Amino acid sequence: MTKKTSPLFPDGLPEDPNRSNDPELLALIKAFPRLFRGEQPRVWSHVPPGWAGIMRKLCGDIDALLSDAQARSFQVQQMKEKFATLRFYWSADFRASPKHAATVTELDRLVDLARADSAVTCYECGAPGKLRSMGGWLSVRCEAHSGGHAEVQQ
Ligand SMILES: [Zn+2]
User: Fold this and answer.
1) How far apart are alpha carbons 51 and 117 in whole angstroms?
2) What is the distance in A from the centroid of ligand 1 to the CA of 49?
3) Residues 29 and 103 reside in one and the same domain
4) What is the DSSP track for 109-134?
5) What protein residues have CB closer than 5 angstroms to ion ligand 1?
6) Looking at the structure, do residues 139 and 112 belong to the same domain, yes or no?
Protein backbone atom coordinates (compact mmCIF):
# COMPACT_ATOMS: atom_id res chain seq x y z
CA MET A 1 0.00 0.00 0.00
CA THR A 2 1.25 3.43 -0.86
CA LYS A 3 0.18 6.55 0.91
CA LYS A 4 -0.73 9.41 -1.38
CA THR A 5 0.03 12.91 -0.24
CA SER A 6 -0.47 16.20 -1.94
CA PRO A 7 2.85 17.93 -2.73
CA LEU A 8 1.43 21.08 -1.15
CA PHE A 9 0.91 19.20 2.11
CA PRO A 10 3.76 16.68 2.46
CA ASP A 11 2.56 15.69 5.93
CA GLY A 12 -0.94 14.96 4.68
CA LEU A 13 -3.94 17.12 4.17
CA PRO A 14 -4.68 19.57 6.97
CA GLU A 15 -7.74 18.93 9.08
CA ASP A 16 -10.94 20.57 7.96
CA PRO A 17 -10.89 23.87 9.87
CA ASN A 18 -14.67 23.65 10.27
CA ARG A 19 -14.38 20.43 12.23
CA SER A 20 -13.74 20.61 15.92
CA ASN A 21 -12.18 17.84 18.00
CA ASP A 22 -13.59 19.43 21.13
CA PRO A 23 -14.57 16.41 23.29
CA GLU A 24 -17.50 18.21 24.93
CA LEU A 25 -18.93 19.10 21.53
CA LEU A 26 -18.47 15.55 20.22
CA ALA A 27 -20.27 14.23 23.32
CA LEU A 28 -23.25 16.53 22.67
CA ILE A 29 -23.41 15.49 19.00
CA LYS A 30 -23.59 11.87 20.16
CA ALA A 31 -26.10 12.53 22.96
CA PHE A 32 -28.59 14.53 20.86
CA PRO A 33 -29.03 12.88 17.46
CA ARG A 34 -32.26 14.81 16.79
CA LEU A 35 -30.49 18.16 17.11
CA PHE A 36 -27.18 17.34 15.38
CA ARG A 37 -27.92 14.26 13.23
CA GLY A 38 -24.40 13.11 13.96
CA GLU A 39 -22.87 16.17 12.30
CA GLN A 40 -20.85 19.11 13.44
CA PRO A 41 -22.61 22.48 13.54
CA ARG A 42 -22.22 24.32 10.23
CA VAL A 43 -19.85 26.90 11.65
CA TRP A 44 -16.81 26.03 13.78
CA SER A 45 -17.99 25.45 17.31
CA HIS A 46 -16.53 25.08 20.76
CA VAL A 47 -17.97 24.04 24.10
CA PRO A 48 -15.83 25.52 26.90
CA PRO A 49 -15.18 22.84 29.56
CA GLY A 50 -16.81 24.89 32.31
CA TRP A 51 -19.96 25.39 30.27
CA ALA A 52 -20.46 21.80 29.17
CA GLY A 53 -23.23 21.33 31.76
CA ILE A 54 -25.02 24.49 30.60
CA MET A 55 -24.77 23.44 26.93
CA ARG A 56 -25.98 19.93 27.78
CA LYS A 57 -28.99 21.29 29.69
CA LEU A 58 -29.79 23.65 26.80
CA CYS A 59 -29.64 20.83 24.26
CA GLY A 60 -31.79 18.65 26.54
CA ASP A 61 -34.40 21.39 26.94
CA ILE A 62 -34.51 21.99 23.17
CA ASP A 63 -34.74 18.27 22.47
CA ALA A 64 -37.69 18.01 24.87
CA LEU A 65 -39.38 21.06 23.33
CA LEU A 66 -39.32 20.07 19.66
CA SER A 67 -41.81 17.69 18.10
CA ASP A 68 -40.37 15.15 15.67
CA ALA A 69 -41.61 17.25 12.75
CA GLN A 70 -39.98 20.38 14.16
CA ALA A 71 -36.75 18.56 14.94
CA ARG A 72 -36.46 17.46 11.31
CA SER A 73 -35.92 21.06 10.17
CA PHE A 74 -33.86 22.11 13.20
CA GLN A 75 -30.13 22.60 12.79
CA VAL A 76 -27.51 23.81 15.22
CA GLN A 77 -25.52 26.42 13.34
CA GLN A 78 -22.89 27.27 15.93
CA MET A 79 -22.15 27.07 19.63
CA LYS A 80 -19.29 28.98 21.18
CA GLU A 81 -18.17 31.76 23.50
CA LYS A 82 -18.36 35.36 22.34
CA PHE A 83 -17.78 38.50 24.40
CA ALA A 84 -17.42 36.28 27.48
CA THR A 85 -20.79 34.56 27.26
CA LEU A 86 -22.27 31.56 25.54
CA ARG A 87 -23.70 31.78 22.04
CA PHE A 88 -25.99 29.19 20.50
CA TYR A 89 -27.17 29.81 16.95
CA TRP A 90 -29.79 27.63 15.32
CA SER A 91 -31.98 27.55 12.25
CA ALA A 92 -35.30 25.87 11.63
CA ASP A 93 -38.35 26.06 9.46
CA PHE A 94 -41.38 25.60 11.67
CA ARG A 95 -43.91 27.16 9.29
CA ALA A 96 -45.67 23.83 8.82
CA SER A 97 -46.10 23.55 12.57
CA PRO A 98 -49.27 25.01 14.09
CA LYS A 99 -47.31 26.18 17.15
CA HIS A 100 -44.35 27.68 15.31
CA ALA A 101 -44.41 31.15 16.91
CA ALA A 102 -44.64 29.75 20.43
CA THR A 103 -41.79 27.35 19.72
CA VAL A 104 -39.49 30.10 18.46
CA THR A 105 -40.31 32.23 21.51
CA GLU A 106 -39.51 29.32 23.83
CA LEU A 107 -36.26 28.53 21.96
CA ASP A 108 -35.15 32.15 22.35
CA ARG A 109 -36.00 32.02 26.05
CA LEU A 110 -33.98 28.82 26.59
CA VAL A 111 -30.95 30.26 24.78
CA ASP A 112 -31.21 33.47 26.85
CA LEU A 113 -31.33 31.44 30.07
CA ALA A 114 -28.20 29.50 29.06
CA ARG A 115 -26.41 32.75 28.20
CA ALA A 116 -27.37 34.21 31.60
CA ASP A 117 -26.00 31.07 33.30
CA SER A 118 -22.73 31.35 31.40
CA ALA A 119 -22.30 34.95 32.61
CA VAL A 120 -21.85 33.69 36.19
CA THR A 121 -20.11 30.36 35.49
CA CYS A 122 -16.35 29.85 35.17
CA TYR A 123 -15.38 29.15 31.55
CA GLU A 124 -12.73 26.69 32.69
CA CYS A 125 -14.32 24.66 35.48
CA GLY A 126 -18.01 25.48 35.91
CA ALA A 127 -17.65 26.96 39.41
CA PRO A 128 -19.37 30.27 40.17
CA GLY A 129 -17.47 32.94 38.26
CA LYS A 130 -17.30 36.64 37.66
CA LEU A 131 -16.59 38.69 34.56
CA ARG A 132 -12.90 39.56 34.55
CA SER A 133 -10.63 41.51 32.26
CA MET A 134 -7.90 39.00 31.39
CA GLY A 135 -5.56 41.62 30.00
CA GLY A 136 -7.03 42.25 26.58
CA TRP A 137 -10.15 40.12 26.63
CA LEU A 138 -13.09 39.45 28.90
CA SER A 139 -13.84 36.08 30.45
CA VAL A 140 -15.99 34.71 33.24
CA ARG A 141 -13.66 33.00 35.71
CA CYS A 142 -13.71 31.71 39.26
CA GLU A 143 -11.06 32.89 41.69
CA ALA A 144 -8.84 29.86 41.00
CA HIS A 145 -8.90 30.46 37.22
CA SER A 146 -8.72 34.25 37.41
CA GLY A 147 -4.96 34.37 36.85
CA GLY A 148 -5.03 37.20 39.36
CA HIS A 149 -7.17 39.35 37.06
CA ALA A 150 -9.69 41.58 38.76
CA GLU A 151 -13.43 41.51 38.39
CA VAL A 152 -14.89 44.00 35.92
CA GLN A 153 -17.13 46.45 37.72
CA GLN A 154 -20.40 46.70 35.82
ZN1 LIG B 1 -12.74 27.95 37.48
Assistant:
1) 9
2) 10
3) yes
4) HHHHHHHHHHTTB-TTT-SB-EEEE-
5) 122, 124-125, 127, 142, 145
6) no
